[in-house]
Amino acid sequence: MVLTVQDVTKAFSGADGDVPVLRGVSLSLERGETLALTGESGSGKSTLLHLIGGLDTVDSGAIQVAGREITTMTDSERAALRRSDVGVIFQQFNLIPSLTVEANIAFQARLAGTYDSDHATRLAGALGLTEHLSKYPEALSGGQQQRVAIARTLTAQPKLVLADEPTGNLDEATASEVLSQMLRLVRDTGAALLMVTHSQTVARRMERHVHLSQGHVV
Amino acid sequence: MIWTILTALLSHWRRNGLQFFALISGLALATALWSGVQAINAEARASYDAAAATLGEGQFDQLLPRAGEVIDQSVYIALRRAGWQVSPVLEGRFETETGRVRIVGLDPLTAPGSIAPVGMQEDATLDDFLTRGVLFAGPDMAARLDGAVTQRVVVDPSVAPGVALTDIGVAQTLLDAEGQLSRLIVAPLQPMGIQPLATTAPDLVRQVAQDAGADRLTDSFHLNLTAFGLLSFAVGIFIVHGTISLAFEQRRGMVRTMRALGVPLSSLIWLMIAELVLFALVAGAIGVALGYVIAAVLLPNVAATLQGLYGASVAGTLQLRAEWWLSGIAIAVLGTGLAASGALWKIAKMPLLSSARPRAWAVASGVTALRLGAVAGVLFVLGLGIALFGEGLTLGFVLLACLLIGAALILPLLLRGAVTLADRQAHSAMWQWFWADTRQQVPGMSLALMALLLATATNVGVSTMVSSFRVTFVDFLDQRLAPELFIRIEDAGESPDLEAFLIANAREVLPLLSVETEIAGVPTDLFGVRVGPTYRENWLFLADTPDVWDRVEEGEATVVSEQLARRAGLWTGDPVVIAPDLTLPIAAIVADYGNPLGQALISEELFRGLYPDVVPLSFGVRTNDPAQVRARLTDDYGLPEAAITDQSRIKAFSLEVFERTFTVTGALNVLTLAVAAFAILMSLLTLASIRVPQLAPAWALGLTRRSLGRLELLRAVVLAMVTTVLAIPLGLLLAWVLLSYVNVEAFGWKLPMYLFPGHYALLTLFALMAAALAALWPAIRLSRTPPSELLKVFANDR
Amino acid sequence: MIVRVLLLILWLPVQATAQGFAGLGTEAEGFSVPAPGYAFDFPQDHGAHPDFRIEWWYLTANLTGPDGTPYGVQWTLFRSALAPETRDGWSDPQVWFAHAALTTPDRHLVAERIARGGIGQAGVTVTPFEAWIDDWRMAGPSFDNLSLTARGTGFAYDLDLRATGPLVFHGQDGFSVKSAQGQASYYYSQPFYEVAGTLTLPEGDIPVTGSAWLDREWSSQPLADTQSGWDWFSLSFDTGDKLMGFRLREDDGGAFTSATWIAPDGTTTAYPDGAFAAQPVDTHEVAGRSVPTEWAVQLPDKGIDVTVRALNPDAWMLVSIPYWEGPVTVTGSHGGRGYLEMTGYE
């Protein structure tokens, strides 16, 4: 198992006391699997993704990533896990604006100490970024920027890729193309993919599909 | 990993060169300002020391002949050969066809440090000075000497008026006094185990160094100047704070991304600190160098001082130079730390999942402005409490801090208020847009305007303080140095004869009768004064009752010093016990700057009755022709030259020295304004890029780019004007705190404050010009923004 | 300030602050210049030679206290002429200055005096011999029997010197060459003084005994203008042999060396450039400069291969033109002690 989530609960404090967002969610993901996580706004799908990515902490329950329990980890241990085993792709492309495309792609792999320039070049080529490598992100279109983010994640060769509405900011045609490239490349690397999306079209292209409603898996 | 993170962090500066420039140059300017003020202080101190040195008073003990006017050179040699570190001085009058010059001969080889303020010209070598002879004199004396002496005359304005300085040997020749000396200066450090003076030179008496009256007055001046140095630095820190906040705001997204990609927060914070320390070190070093250059360029005198203080070629001064650099760089690092701590704290506390979108560089949206205003209110109340009930120097500085920070914090609120007020008056759509847009700009401009506020307030404060000080100083000198000549004798038996001689030759003679006693538990000098025109005309009181001098003359009242009054808790009208069976009411309080002892004045008659054994050994002499009286005293009466002090000369010289310091502080004003202008320029430039989307609609609606640029300029000037108008009362408050609070706490007396409206008007004008100048470039840039840039705002829908 | 400025200018014609000790290489205009074959005439030559620009009476002593503590004492009188003549009174162009130092293993006390000739404050007389400035004196019935005193703010000393050997002449019978271009000085020494006397420190008097070495040198342009300073060694070996060696540093990094080997009976061997070698082994930070305070010294011809180490590496002479001067110990092929002077370390 690359990912195991067991009975995870999470609440946020609101004006009228704590608002439960996740009320005991369990799921698991194997190597090479792709899974779509869908749900209404506020169903807790992004929260779950953040918890798995170690960007936030659970109230109760357990999460194992690559066989390691992350709920008991310290901040810096979780950061180390994100560097080496988990890749996160956000809806906003979250590139570092002052680094070139090439440096952005290399960034996470360099952090993890696993940078392989041949691998990076192949990925950039596969994503059609070769001619943009020396540009800065601001010169790229939205689709191109998201491709850079995907390349950055995959260059680091994570075991688990988390994607939060990766195509949400793109027009339909671009979204479809980016998604295809992403699925193909994730499969090539053998990583597991967990993608949060509200789009049924997107969800249908994944192997498995989990729907969250009111904090429960349905 | 470290390297990867650092590369990413530093890439921000590479891509935002202007920001980097603003950070480094802001910090460097702030440090330069600090260093510059240090240099100015050093210069002021050196000038005072030089003044004291030229006049031969104050600094050193002296050996004078017990009888007669002359010391034989053999006595000097005998003292030297006995190990005494003494240096010969010969003084005398030299008659030329155009007038009289007072020649002072020194031996530069044995004179103790900084005895004379003569700056050597590059073409006057020691060889010349010692063997061929060179005279140093101010312009007027140099003119008198021209043609009257065979030696070369070098014009040096730092030589005391009426005096020409030269080598002792030359002086002996000119004054026809071979083998004769007037007095010997005693070095403060003497070798161990030398024979007592009485054994080696029984015919000499040692006159202990006099404490120059204005010393403590100048100490106070230096304290205030230092306080203003810190204020100036605070202005610089505002810029640094602004730049750092902006940069950190813009890097929020990057920070979040990096953390999401697995960069530990702690590494990130440490690397950011390291990055800032590096910048601070570089900028600090640039700043120190810049401060040196500024000081050297603006003030040639300072250059000489710096040479003396920090020059590598002079023995024993290396330590100082290191300190100078260290203090400059330390203040840069500390300032950066101060400016960055908030931004770093925010980064450290920023939740990983918060919005990564950079927020506008805002310190004052409506709510924040109100919140800041509330904090300011608290600070003002605290300050008021300290002003009313506080005691102690530390609290004085806390009060200053409350005032400054409070004023800076309340500024956005006041600016918004002013703009809203203007908005209500606006009738056309364009002006309504203008004012609304201006209100939007207030948050972004706030930090820069705060810098301008503090800079202008500092300037108002500096000029008020310095000018008040100058007025006080002049009054004080007029009062205390009113007698043109001051005569001091050693032999009490000589006193009655001398007094009779003086009365016959001078307009007014003021014998100095004094005893040290204790009045109301305060150690006090009690003076018996001969009330006459001098006292009636020259003495200014801090508080008085009618007919002060009449009542003192009649023996019905006393005048006491501020120190005595404050320490004893007395004021005018209160009775005070002068002696066991003499109690008098206080008729007036007089300022006595810097005297650690109290002072009380009673009539000469009362005094002589109380202390019949006290004989006056000092006399003040009022005359219209000091030179003539002096000549009679030496030629006819036979008084040694050294016994006569020409106070008009001291006064003139003291004033001249002070004027120099005064011009020097002008440079400080220019500097602080430059820094504030820089702050405005930088914030306008950084705002400019953010501004395009906001200006595009106005352009689309028909405003030309040129008029947009003009409006931008106008906006900057309007905001600067409001700020400057607020700065004047703030500056006056600052000056008041320094003169009336800090000074009292530090020295026990209050400096009166005077107002100089013309000066403030000029300063306001300068501040506005600085703001306009700073806004000019961004405005021009705006008016030249290509339409495509503006169009992009509409085309770009992402 | 004037004093400082004047002091700087004072040195310009003689020692030149701009280049430090390199200023010794300035023109000898109007002054006499040393020439080979000079016949020394004593006691006259113990006195001043005002027609030469610069001259010194330079005494260093290695002393030992009753508890075995080593001490060093320096007493130097310099004469520096602004013009090649003497005049009576203040206009005398002969300027005298003096440095006194007392070095202990952990302290280095320095004093400086400056005076003009012509008025009796400083000078040198020959019979009886007296060299003085203020109350500092080196005087006695003859050059072989002197008493030496000096006093500073925190120290004083009073020593008796007895010569137990002859005068020693360096270079070519006292004509000592200082550069390949031929700059030279007249240079002789009395290295055979036995010393007894008292050192005074703030905590009290210390009786001492030991040996002293007096150098006499005068010239008008002792250095070539390419030379920036020198390292000068006077070493007394336990065998009774003595060695004077110096190394004049060239701006280009090279050096000119010269040495005199002094046998216990006073017979000398002079060595030309290159025979004597001295290399810094270790440096010490003092007064913000890096100064070599440990040296490897060789004179292969006499089998000398020794390490010379400062007794107190902080022996910095903080005077108008600062330099390093202090006692040293010698170890290696030969044991012994001596003095080291290093100038021109800016």
Plain-language structure description:
The complex is a heterotrimer of chains A (218), B (798) and C (346). Chain A has helices at 45-52, 75-84, 101-112, 117-126, 142-155, 172-189, 200-204, and strands at 3-14, 17-29, 34-39, 60-65, 68-69, 86-89, 160-164, 192-196, 208-213, 216-217. With 218 residues, chain A is an alpha/beta fold. Chain A has a single domain (31-54, 75-217), classed as 3-Layer(aba) Sandwich (Rossmann fold), CATH 3.40.50. Chain A has a 6-stranded mixed sheet with strand order 6-7-8-3-9-10, with helices on both faces. Chain A has a 4-stranded antiparallel sheet with strand order 2-1-4-5, with helices on one face. The mean pLDDT of chain A is 86. In chain B, α2 (17-54) packs antiparallel against α8 (215-250), α2 (17-54) packs antiparallel against α22 (647-700) and α15 (429-480) packs parallel to α23. Chain B is 63% helix and 14% strand. In chain B, strands 11, 12, 13, 14, 15, 16, 17, 18, 19 and 20 form a 10-stranded mixed sheet that branches. In chain C, strands 1, 2, 3, 4, 5, 6, 7, 8, 9, 10, 11, 12 and 13 form a 13-stranded antiparallel sheet that branches. In chain C, strands 14, 15, 16, 17, 18, 19, 20, 21, 22 and 23 form a 10-stranded antiparallel sheet that branches. Chain C has one domain: AttH-like domain (AttH-like fold). Helix content of chain C is 3%, strand content 55%. Chains in contact: A-B, B-C. The interface between B and C is large, with 51 and 49 residues.
In a few lines, what is going on in this structure?
The complex is a heterotrimer of chains A (about 220), B (about 800) and C (about 350). With about 220 residues, chain A is of the alpha/beta class.
Please describe the topology of this protein:
The complex is a heterotrimer of chains A (218), B (798) and C (346).
Chain A: E1 3-14, E2 17-29, E3 34-39, H1 45-52, E4 60-65, E5 68-69, H2 75-84, E6 86-89, H3 101-112, H4 117-126, H5 142-155, E7 160-164, H6 172-189, E8 192-196, H7 200-204, E9 208-213, E10 216-217
Chain B: H1 2-15, H2 17-54, E1 61-65, E2 71-72, H3 73-81, E3 86-96, E4 99-106, H4 126-132, E5 134-137, H5 139-145, E6 152-155, E7 163-167, H6 168-174, E8 180-181, E9 183-186, H7 197-200, E10 204-207, H8 215-250, H9 252-260, H10 265-298, H11 300-310, H12 318-349, H13 366-389, H14 393-425, H15 429-480, E11 485-488, H16 495-505, E12 508-519, E13 522-529, H17 533-538, E14 541-544, H18 548-553, E15 558-561, H19 562-568, E16 575-579, E17 582-590, E18 598-603, H20 604-610, E19 618-622, H21 626-637, E20 644-646, H22 647-700, H23 705-747, H24 757-783, H25 787-795
Parallel strand pairs in B: 4-7, 5-6, 13-18, 15-17
Antiparallel strand pairs in B: 1-9, 1-10, 2-8, 3-4, 3-9, 5-7, 11-19, 11-20, 12-13, 12-19, 14-17, 15-18, 16-17
Chain C: H1 2-11, E1 54-64, E2 70-81, E3 94-103, E4 108-116, E5 122-125, E6 129-133, E7 136-142, E8 145-151, E9 156-163, E10 168-169, E11 175-177, E12 184-201, E13 204-219, E14 227-237, E15 242-250, E16 255-262, E17 268-271, E18 277-286, E19 289-299, E20 304-310, E21 316-317, E22 323-332, E23 336-342
Antiparallel strand pairs in C: 1-2, 1-13, 2-3, 3-4, 5-6, 6-7, 7-8, 8-9, 9-12, 10-12, 11-12, 12-13, 14-15, 14-23, 15-16, 16-17, 18-19, 19-20, 20-22, 21-22, 22-23
